[in-house]
Design goal:
Layout lengths: L13 E5 L4 H12 L3 E6 L14 E4 L4 H10 L4 E5 L7 H4 L3 H10 L5 H15 L3 E2 L2 H4 L8 E2 L7 H19 L5 E5 L2 E5 L5 H9 L9 E4 L16 H9 L4 E5 L8 H11 L2 E5 L1 H4 L2 H11 L16
Parallel strand pairs: 1-2, 1-4, 2-3, 4-5, 9-10, 10-11
Antiparallel strand pairs: 6-11, 7-8, 7-9
Helix pairs in contact: 7-12, 8-9, 9-10
């Protein structure tokens, strides 16, 4: 029996917890266009006022002000929530929790390790309030990277080998909850992403490049990633950084990585003569690497469907 579709958006009120970047604005504009009731909780010193539409229902809240956030959710009768936009590493005063925040931290558990464990704990707290957490891609699926090249330039056979190695390495990196991106040049992993983020990773790789052509930034989702609140993203600034580092292009996991303005990204990449391509990790990895990755993750996320068990239409 098919699962019921998501309830009518007009029957719910969406809380948009906004960080930095253009993504919050895109979601707000979508809600305005579709007449979806919404309320914005903009994170102080994170969300950018100049990137948010004017005349919107909004309350500015501190990251650690959990009590204020909970009271606002109840007062506004918010039934669904989306956490959207980037959040830089906050200062102590920004993140220092109020009493409600301390209680939440204790429930989540101080033993939680890494971003993924923390995000899953936050989702549980929202669900305890009766708020359903949704992902931006549910509202704006067109922002997900398409399969194939979006640029005039396409990866060559050497680039494809680098992309395959990069996908495997990035998945292993993500499995350890370290990062989502790597830079590979002619089979050599030049750099992996840490806490500094993709932009700094690319800048660092410039000094590590070997002589000759080549070099690809590869970005995938972590095997255990919580897609509703944490999706990797690339934009025009990523393209500019890749070109400045002397790399040939960017490969992202199709349908899993966000490209907020795919046309702007394609135009900039074409102007800088680099490629941007969406790839399927399931098809680009050699069978031996797929099998090895499945064993390491403990799940068949990359496994082909079993023969003889096709869904009946």
């Amino acid at each position: 029996m098919k699962q019921k579709t998501i309830r009518n958006q007009k029957e719910s009120k969406l809380g948009i917890i906004a960080g930095a970047g253009v993504l919050p604005r895109l979601l707000i504009e979508h809600c305005q266009k579709t007449k979806q009731p919404f309320f914005v909780l903009a994170l102080k010193n994170q969300a950018q006022p100049d990137l948010l539409p004017t005349d919107i229902p909004v309350k500015w809240v501190r990251l650690g002000g959990v009590g204020t956030i909970i009271r606002t959710i109840k007062a506004q009768q918010i039934t669904e929530a989306v956490m959207i936009g980037s959040v830089r590493r906050p200062s102590l005063t920004e993140v220092f929790p109020d009493w409600a925040g301390i209680q939440v931290a204790m429930r989540i558990g101080l033993s939680q390790k890494g971003d993924d464990g923390l995000l899953r704990g936050i989702i549980r707290e929202f669900e305890n309030l009766g708020v359903r957490v949704r992902g931006m891609h549910e509202f704006l699926p067109d922002l997900l990277a398409p399969l194939g090249a979006i640029t005039q330039k396409q990866p060559d056979v050497f680039d494809i080998e680098d992309i395959s190695r990069g996908c495997y390495t990035a998945k292993l990196l993500g499995l350890a909850d370290v990062g989502q991106s790597v830079v590979v040049q002619r089979g050599l992993v030049l750099a992996v992403e840490g806490i500094e983020g993709t932009q700094k990773l690319v800048e660092r790789s410039k000094a590590l490049r070997r002589k000759g052509q080549g070099g690809v930034l590869v970005k995938t989702v972590k095997p255990q990633q919580e897609h509703r609140v944490d999706m990797p993203t690339i934009g025009v600034s990523t393209v500019e950084a890749v070109a400045a580092a002397g790399l040939k292009g960017i490969a992202v996991e199709a349908g899993k990585v966000l490209i907020p303005d795919v046309n702007a990204v394609a135009r900039k990449a074409d102007a800088l003569k680099i490629f941007v391509v969406g790839v399927s990790v399931d098809t680009i990895l050699p069978p031996v690497l797929k099998e090895r990755l499945n064993i390491l993750t403990g799940q068949s996320v990359l496994q082909k469907p079993k023969k003889g068990k096709r869904d009946k239409k």
